[in-house]
Amino acid sequence: MMSMTLNAAEQQSDSLVIHFDFTIIDPSTGHNGNHKSPVSQPNVAFDEASRTVIFTTPCPGATLQVVNGLGVAVYTEELYETMTEVELPETLVGEYELQILRGNFCFYATIEL
Question: Looking at the whole model, is its pTM more than 0.85?
Answer without folding.
Answer: no
